[in-house]
């Protein structure tokens, strides 16, 4: 269980560096063997405005800074200071997990002729380019899962950007265990994925 530090900045620094089984500091993750792996549930929007499109969309692997381009589940304190849950990890690197869930979400709308990954052999009409801006449990206030993804939709036939937008959602976490953090992140991610799917349907 991750514990929150209260009080002054010195207390918070001590919290992040001396836990004895709490958070794992950035840069120390390499020697930490996960005992449990966690995934994301794919959002399946119940209703997406717009008609079905006979187009195919390629979802590229999201870009991310090194702090999020990892299989470890991030915890962010004021600073920001990035740390990670020990003995726990995503089922793959976080950008790959998000890419898979975006593909599943778009497929779940039933609005496209095809949605897939690079190498799937699609006759591509549009490319979805994304960047992970936040995907973490934030503890610099009320504990909450925060997901922020920047998206750009590109017409593959002429290379023109037809739209770009940022998507962000937060979900309160009742505590700071890894299970509670993943549940909050799933809730926030579902909202982001659903809003992104609706936006893409409208754009194409």
From TrEMBL:
Ranges of residues in domain ABC-type transport auxiliary lipoprotein component: 38-197
Transmembrane segments: none
Gene3D superfamilies from the UniProt entry: ABC-type transport auxiliary lipoprotein component
Coiled-coil residue spans: none
Alphabetical keyword list: Lipoprotein
Protein name per Swiss-Prot or TrEMBL: ABC-type transport auxiliary lipoprotein family protein
């Amino acid at each position: 269980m991750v514990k929150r530090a209260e009080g002054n900045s010195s207390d918070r620094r001590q919290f992040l560096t001396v836990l004895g089984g709490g958070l794992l500091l950035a840069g120390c993750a390499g020697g930490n063997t996960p005992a449990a792996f966690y995934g994301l549930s794919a959002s399946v929007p119940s209703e997406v405005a717009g008609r079905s499109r006979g187009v195919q969309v390629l979802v590229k692997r999201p870009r991310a800074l090194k702090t999020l381009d990892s299989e470890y589940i991030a915890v962010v304190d004021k600073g920001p200071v990035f740390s990670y849950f020990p003995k726990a990890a995503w089922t793959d690197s976080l950008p790959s997990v998000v890419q898979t869930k975006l593909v599943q979400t778009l497929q779940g709308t039933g609005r496209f002729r095809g949605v897939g990954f690079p190498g799937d052999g699609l006759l591509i009409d549009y490319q979805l380019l994304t960047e992970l801006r936040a995907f973490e449990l934030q503890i610099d206030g009320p504990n909450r899962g925060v997901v922020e993804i920047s998206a750009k939709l590109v017409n593959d036939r002429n290379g023109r950007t037809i739209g770009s937008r940022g998507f962000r959602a937060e979900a309160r976490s009742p505590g700071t265990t890894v299970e509670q953090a993943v549940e909050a992140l799933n809730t926030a991610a579902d909202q982001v994925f659903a809003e992104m799917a609706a936006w893409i349907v409208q754009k194409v």
